[in-house]
User: What shape does this take?
Amino acid sequence: MIRLELKPLKTVEDARSMLETAIGLEFGTLPPYLYAMFSIPPGKNVAAANLIKSVLMQEMIHMCLACNIMNALGGTVKLVPPKYPGPLPGDIGPIGKDALVIHLYRLSKEGMKQGMDIEQPETIPNFPVLKAAPGVPATGTIGQFYQRLDDFLATLPPGVWKKGRNQITDNQFFTGQLFAVNDYADAHRAIEEIVSEGEGAKDEPLDFQQELAHYYRFGEVYHDRVLTKIAKPPGYQWGPAKLGVIWKDVFPAIPDPGTHDFSKDSAAARAAQAACNAAYTRMVDALQQAVTGTKGALGNAVRAMFDLRLATQVALRTPLADGVSVAGPAFLYTPIKGGAKA
Amino acid sequence: MSILETPRILFRGNIAWDPIVTNNNAPAYDEDTAQTLYPDAPTIQAKVAAFRKEAIADVNPNANPPNGPSRVWNPHGTHRSSFYDEAFPDPSAPDSLIVDSCISGVDTGGGPDARDPFVGSPARFTGMLVDLEPYGSYSSQLFFDTISFGIDGGCRIVAPRNSRVNDRYINLGRNPVYYIAGFASVIWQTSFRKDLGLIVDDYDSLALRKLKEALKQDDVLGLTVRWTVYRTVYYDTPALATDVPLQTAVAEQLMAKLESGGFQPNPARSKLVGAIGLWRKGEPEHEPGDRALLATQWPPGQPAVPPCVGTAFARLGEKSVTLDLGNSMPETGLDLTKQDWGDLQVRAVDPADPKRVVAKLGTLTYKDYRREAYEAGSGIVTLAVAAADARAAAKANIQVVQAKTGTVLLDEAPLRAIPLVPNLYLNAGEAATAKLQLYQRGAPAGAGIPITLCQMSADGSTIQGKTQIVTGAGGVASFPIQVGEGEIEAFVPLPGGNPVLPTGGLNTMINTYMYVRILPADAAIGALPPTWDNVYAKVLANWKAMAPCMDNWLDLDDEAQVRAYAPVIKALTDPAAFENYRFMPVTRDMSPGCRALLYNFLDGKKPAAAPAEARPNARLKAKAPKPAASRLAEMSKSMR
Assistant: This one.
């Protein structure tokens, strides 16, 4: 069972602090999921790539929704690029154990297990091939983290909400999923969307749109089985149909390239990393501007995202010194003096 | 027959449209030569930059009226069109809980039913919206790979592409409150062969079980999917329909975004209702082939003034008549309330004496076609009919009549000639023969029936020639297509030897039609030395200027990147991949000569022939303006 540090909420400032954690948490999931997706060569592991991409897109939306709530509450969003390996904000981790240390893994069993750990719901239905979850207190999941936030937001007077403040909507990207938060009803819906898409409905792998929740999407890749509807309890089983994962059909990307010493690698490898970091930095800077009210900055972030994708494709085709391995993007935020900042 | 037969699966939701608009008219693009027309500038790079600058400037509604035929609302389009889920329930919706693009009901013979386990399953579709004729909007298509309903491991339909989705029966009279093309609705249809990877997993769905069983019948080719889109909103701002200052404000905001750099798409959005049904032998793949009840409120050459009733389709059973009103009944405004025409009588009249009613087929009340019913049944309504009346109506003309006025709103055309390929791409010099299937009251007609074939101007506004052909066995007729060096042709087939000609222009509610785009050979371009300068100027600059979305994954003006990605570029531009979602160029306007030059460059080859002078491509040398089009054609342009 995953736990997430839960703080008591008494003031709007407490809620903003919790939202800061939420934003950091959603942001922090993006690089590991991107790393896994980027590591899949075109035309390989198509089903797995589509599942990971679908989670990624929703995580980006969740981050924006959390930013919208923060802005609606009069707060200021400050995106803090996480470091890998490292913990996620809120010290998310198993009950009674240390916080999860998040790594950048290529498409692999351990990478998918990490995704499942991050997205783990309050209770895991005991579908065949899965072992039952141990009986532990039902506290501390991401869902419960958001539930606590939601409960508190419901108590706030209407005057707290700043209508139309720095809101990101879906009029350009993420059609139909991203909306402005102008009051508690909007915030409640945003939280429902975040939790439902991440964890599914209670005791049910489907989210509010009858799609698989994130935990189960990673589960399908991890088990290499399609989660399949059955007529008897518990209602679903893993397989028998395979998803078609071929673990070896990936770029041989090293884990956590941020810890790798590139000084012994070729100039091309170093240049590829630099290009990735530069694009990532531009993306973070543009995102920071977008969530603090700069019109059009989201389009700049998406443009930088395309640059990052292209730089990654070069990096993943540039051998390291061992002649076998490659490195995906390290996701190192490397601001350039005089560059655009929020 | 078709989706008017049961079992039938119903869906509804939303679709986003994100086409580029930079190729929508002559000042910027020559649709015959398939070349960008650049402003004057000293280098090709400068021409591209100037073109992009003009494209942004044209967003300004003061410089370029939004309802005028120009490139105004989306110079950064991606062409992607996807079903999507609304973030918020529409409080006025009959069922505000269903906001997704999803299965909304099933009909196994007893009317729309929302209790089947398949209901609520997501509908997923993403296609590339491309107009065969870039200036107009009569020839829109969606290039895609797969459509699916439901999810893996549960109730689902997964349908790999058999052919692209085509639009027909553009209804320009659907909604009186609109901005740009918000007045219109249109039918989209394609069909999927059961032997090409179609999957139907029924699990506990009775409707899917019945559909799966029906697919085993010998005369069932597969499934037809038809949907109608309506209530299109631009800039994600419905209020633009009535707020002129706001139109300027949103355009200025878009211009500011575009000028700030980055990637700034501006998709439009529509509602949709649809149905999935059996596709039987003899039925058209890409547009309704059922009995056609044509709109009567459409004077030739003029769009009706909305709200008015659009063409519908009917299937007569032994004891029932089923009407597809999905594209027919207009709304009164953006709240999607349906226009109340009162009771509508469905009847059959003697073809020789239309005043003589031979059968009464029932009455539709407002309750049958109001918004709630429309969204629940995707506009498909079934009426019980006495067996004797059904027999009498079999060879009579079905009409829909407004009871209180006696006005005939819909009137059956017993013969319809439908092109087997609605939108055809050819290269200069390729010989082609087009085929038409003549239908008589929804079934293939016989031999020996004349069809008058009108060749129209590319914008559909004027008749440029006509000829007569005759059906052969099974009601099929064919005609040769004369291919020029680079042009767009439109054909309107009219059953009979002396039909009413579309002198006022192609009428999308009344006429069936076929579009043909003939890409130039561009042999001179293909023979150019395959240098970077040539390949950029003649090929890649077009894409860079016209559709920056193609630049998202690759910097098209970076020689090193283009060379590095040669295998990928060749795979994406391979003619064998033409129908694929990810074909390049997305606009499908790459001539053989341009492809040869590109491939020679990517392969490091020398040209096959000596260098020849490429054809001029200067804006000042663009072809003469086309004749002024009819109001209908102008309005069609504004839909882009």
